[in-house]
Amino acid sequence: MSFENLNLHPLILKAIVDSGYTAPTPIQEQAIPELLAGHDIMASAQTGTGKTAAFMLPALHRLATPAKVHGRGPRVLVLTPTRELALQVSEAAAKYGKHLPRVKVVSILGGMPYPLQNKLLSQPVDILVATPGRLIDHIQRGRIDFSRLEMMVLDEADRMLDMGFIDDVERIASATPATRQTLLFSATLDSAIDKVAARLLKTPKRIQIAAQQARLDNIEQRLHYVDDLSHKNRLLDHLLRDMALKQAIVFTATKRDADTLADNLSAQGHEAAALHGDMSQRDRTRTLTKLRHGGLRVLVATDVAARGIDVAGITHVINFDLPKFAEDYVHRIGRTGRAGAAGIAVSFASGKDGVNLKKIERFTGQQIASHVVPGLEPRFKPRPGGAGGASRGTPNVAHKRSRTWSNDTSGRNGNSANGNRDTSRDRSFSNDNRGNSFRGNSNPSPYARTK
Ligand code: AMP
Q: What's the fold here for domain 3-210?
């Protein structure tokens, strides 16, 4: 399938050619025809799959014909959970709409000054990209005219649900015309999302994009066992000194840890800065711009702040702290390996992370291979599998070992085979009776193949 077959406006096709895209991604191939036919859709597709263009191209296609209703308000509304994602959607709108005459894109985000937003909203708008909270403020003050709204997009709806924005989203939807076309994108389509969809969408077409594992094919996932904070810090310093690492995002569990770690790394001579939700929008934008332009090698971030970051130069994602939710792991590591490039995702795990790790592996359907750096071996060793592990010659890695604890039910009975009997740890790591169906799905991503 090529973009030409999708019947998009020629000036949009021109922008696609400028972007260097040769073929639509699976989500684009499936969503665009439905959207051009006027259907509502709910799609499970994550960042990195090309979902932004999947909704933005048809949105722009609509804008290529004059509005049926007179007015100055937006014809397309995109709601996103975070400011960063909203900015990326706005950039995508400008990029794909650059050859169309007069497409005015406005972002209305929390943390930005009201006077400027009031001014932007007093002028004609075609595409409004907003975070829900701030948009509600403007709606309540009567600053937005939705009379000509034709399309509403809920981007990362699962995240908006998690962050408690769904009531706001529903209030916003009720301020828009019932005739609108509604699109919902979410990492997973579960029952909570189904309920939202039932309230906001009209007989939507359901689009399920290949499971998470397909999307992670171009990302090498590695695990390092760690004993304590000092061990983590030493390992991180070592990993950051690898010349193959061009740019990295390091994830911490809290905003405070992000600040502390960024300061420590800077003191060690790394080009590092923090990104989290307590920073002013101006500081966040400045840091992201620096990252994008290569002026920053290491970004230390929290989950919410880093969501949606799309910077091609990111070769490594490092989970200094494992995420609490398996979904966040996928979002985190998806910051590398953008648009089909290869990426490396390294996770640090201590003895107490066993359950979390298991959840992550179950969610992705992939086992994360453990690696050891010579001289920085953990004292804590989950039962190594096989005969001490096979060697693998990457610069950082002395050897890579497979673990028996995560891949069998028999492991619970088979500890004597490896002679390493730390029973408390064995219990926490080996109680895993998932079936093989979770693993070994090497279904290659058609998206990766187009790259
Ligand atoms: P998204 O999932 O929307 O965050 O997009 C992920 C990345 O894929 C972005 O860098 C896009 O520029 C890129 N992209 C989107 N569509 C295509 C395509 N058809 N071919 C190649 N790259 C694409």
A: Rossmann fold (3.40.50)
